[in-house]
Amino acid sequence: MRVNTMKLPRIASTLFLLSVVSASPGIAADLILHDAPVSVYFSPKGGAQDALVDEIGKARESIFVQAYSFTSAPITTALVEAYKRGVKVEIILDKGQRSDPRSGTATVREAGIPTLIDSKHAIAHNKVMVIDREILVTGSFNFTKSAEEKNAENLLIVKSRELARLYFERWQEHQAHSE
């Protein structure tokens, strides 16, 4: 199921702001997002994976990924294709992806995509992509087949340079301690 919030960007932005602000003591920044288009997807079978693959396919400059689980063949293929057409792609994965036989880690590494492991944390549970430093993809949606077909998950695609910048800065912090 896809909820199109393009007609209501202020409402979608305000709702997202409230979600960020209510996260409490560890808030990195308070933002008021004006006119930031947001697309919302729910799974199972709600089109989140297709929407994500579409966004990856539209990337022009860069895609920075943080993923807890990374087993979706279509997402892996889309990232490799983006890299092959000259998009800078860099990935940070949870340490569990080292040993998961279903992981797309080997595929992206073989393609030449820089792929790091974040083992500093008990679980590197992020599910984030920053695309062209202007689009943020986040939510509970793991980059897995199960996320699209079986699990109850959500995906937000937010077109906001300010929000993408904050997530990219956090991505860089994780990159610094990843191996």
Following the backbone from N to C, one meets helices and strands in this order, namely EHEHEHEHEEEHEH
pLDDT below 50 for ≥5 consecutive residues: which ranges? 1-25
CATH arch. level architecture = 2-Layer Sandwich
Backbone CA Rg: 15 Å
Structure description:
The chain is an alpha+beta fold and 179 residues long. It has one domain (2-177): 2-Layer Sandwich (Endonuclease, Chain A). The chain has 6 helices and 8 strands, in the order E-H-E-H-E-H-E-H-E-E-E-H-E-H. It has helices at residues 9-21, 48-58, 73-84, 105-110, 145-149, 161-177; strands spanning 2-4, 38-43, 62-67, 88-94, 115-118, 127-131, 135-138, 153-159. An 8-stranded mixed sheet has the order 1-2-8-7-6-3-4-5, sandwiched between helices. Residues 1-25 have low confidence and may be disordered.
Sequence-ordered SSE layout with sheet pairings:
Elements: E1 2-4, H1 9-21, E2 38-43, H2 48-58, E3 62-67, H3 73-84, E4 88-94, H4 105-110, E5 115-118, E6 127-131, E7 135-138, H5 145-149, E8 153-159, H6 161-177
Parallel strand pairs: 3-4, 4-5
Antiparallel strand pairs: 1-2, 2-8, 3-6, 6-7, 7-8
Concise summary:
With 179 residues, this protein is an alpha+beta fold. The protein is built from six helices and eight strands, in the order E-H-E-H-E-H-E-H-E-E-E-H-E-H.
List keywords for this structure.
single chain, alpha+beta, eight-stranded mixed beta sheet, 6 helices, 179 residues, globular
